[in-house]
């Protein structure tokens, strides 16, 4: 039997009952596969790796070693949430690595988007590999592969979407959600008790804020982007737009314009709002956001975020514009 093929008889997991049954079945299978050995998981905090972590914690507890690499390009509060949920609430065996300086030092002065992506992907593997090398007795590598990854690629998830894990890692794979579609992964995550802010989150590119801090990344502009993005997300949540808009974020270009703040000339970067709807990310339409909400976001970002003096709304559908700016 091809165990990378979803059986025709497999029911779509849409309810808590179906999710609980799936979880019970997978817990048994994982226990059988792993025995008393240790499993390593790169936990990005995205939906798939978070659900796999919660499932494996239920199955094998501290035999799971989660490694969370903070590349310094996470959204505001993301790494903190990973620590809060997995270490504090689920009592996971979690190794947290703040590699911010490593990534930002390597990225300094690099303006070309694909080069930035390569650096982020390559460094992620290096950091994870170094950490894995320090651990003893790891026999398995868990991955948040989901069914679309199998359908769309060679079946191995380019983990964290920032490049594959080292090919010479000789681990047997544990991939408990590999036959599930994204909506099913979310239902399973909820049944496992993960917060909605973790399982219902919008897609986030592996290179993170790195491809939204346009051009050569600097720490001050990255901070401004992170703060402005947090305000956008908060206001979208308040207005219920998080339920209707597929992906929304801020991009901050590497240019300044003149403005006025506190009656003084104030040069700052513009914050560009992007809010799109799509089903497959191949094409995208622009969500109509009420002016009152745009005004509120503009007022908050320009008042609260150091370095930003204008807010723009990107009205370009895909095509012609891609969803990300880089
Ligand atoms: P574009 O910009 O190509 O984006 O219209 C389509 C979708 O893909 C996401 N995206 C990425 N995801 N690594 C990722 O994991 C990347 O390098 C990357 N670039 C774009 C983007 O956020 C959107 O959802």
Q: What distinguishing features does this structure have?
A:
alpha/beta; Rossmann fold; five-stranded parallel beta sheet; 10 strands; globular; binds xanthosine-5'-monophosphate
Tell me about this structure.
There is one protein chain. By secondary structure, the protein is of the alpha/beta class. Helix content is 40%, strand content 18%. It contains 10 helices and 10 strands. The strands form 2 sheets. A 5-stranded parallel beta sheet has the order 3-2-1-4-5, with helices on both faces. α1 (16-34) packs across α7 (182-191) and α4 (100-107) packs antiparallel against α5 (113-134). It starts with 15 loop residues before the first helix and ends in a 13-residue tail after the last strand.
Please count the helical segments: 10
Structural class label: alpha/beta
Q: Characterize the overall form.
A: globular
CATH superfamily of the largest domain: HUPs
Biggest β-sheet strands, sense, barrel: 5 strands, parallel
Q: What's the order of the H and E elements?
A: HEHEHEHHEHEHHHEEEEHE
What is the domain tally? 2
What is the compact description of this entry?
This protein has 326 residues and is α/β, with parallel strands linked by helices. It has helices spanning 16-34, 47-60, 78-89, 100-107, 113-134, 147-152, 182-191, 196-199, 219-238, 291-304, and strands at 38-42, 64-70, 93-98, 138-142, 172-174, 247-251, 257-261, 264-277, 285-286, 308-313. It has 10 helices and 10 strands.
């Amino acid at each position: 039997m091809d165990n990378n093929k979803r059986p025709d008889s497999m029911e779509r997991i849409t309810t808590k009952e179906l999710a609980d049954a799936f979880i019970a079945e997978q817990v048994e299978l994982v226990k059988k596969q792993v025995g008393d050995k240790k499993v390593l998981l790169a936990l990005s905090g995205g939906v798939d790796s978070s659900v796999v972590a919660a499932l494996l914690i239920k199955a094998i507890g501290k035999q799971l070693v989660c490694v969370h690499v903070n590349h310094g390009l996470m959204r505001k509060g993301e790494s903190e949430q990973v620590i809060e949920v997995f270490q504090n609430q689920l009592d996971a065996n979690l190794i947290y690595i703040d590699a911010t300086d490593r990534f930002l030092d390597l990225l300094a002065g690099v303006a070309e988007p694909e080069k930035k992506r390569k650096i982020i992907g390559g460094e992620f593997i290096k950091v994870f590999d170094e950490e894995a090398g320090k651990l003893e007795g790891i026999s398995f590598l868990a991955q948040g592969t989901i069914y679309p990854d199998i359908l769309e690629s060679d079946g191995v998830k380019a983990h964290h979407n920032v490049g594959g894990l080292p090919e010479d890692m000789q681990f047997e794979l544990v991939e408990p959600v590999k036959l599930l579609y994204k909506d099913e992964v979310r239902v399973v995550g909820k049944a496992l008790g993960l917060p909605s802010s973790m399982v219902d989150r919008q897609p986030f590119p592996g290179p993170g804020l790195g491809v939204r801090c346009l051009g050569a990344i600097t720490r001050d502009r990255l901070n401004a982007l992170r703060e402005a993005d947090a305000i956008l997300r908060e206001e979208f949540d308040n207005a219920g737009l998080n339920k209707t808009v597929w992906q929304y974020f801020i991009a901050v270009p590497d240019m300044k314009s003149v403005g006025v703040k506190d009656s003084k000339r104030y040069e700052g970067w513009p914050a560009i709002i992007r809010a799109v709807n799509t089903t497959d990310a191949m094409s995208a339409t622009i969500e109509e956001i009420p002016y009152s909400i745009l005004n509120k976001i503009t007022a908050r970002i320009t008042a609260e975020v150091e370095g930003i003096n204008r807010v723009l709304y990107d009205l370009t559908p895909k095509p012609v514009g891609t969803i990300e700016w880089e």
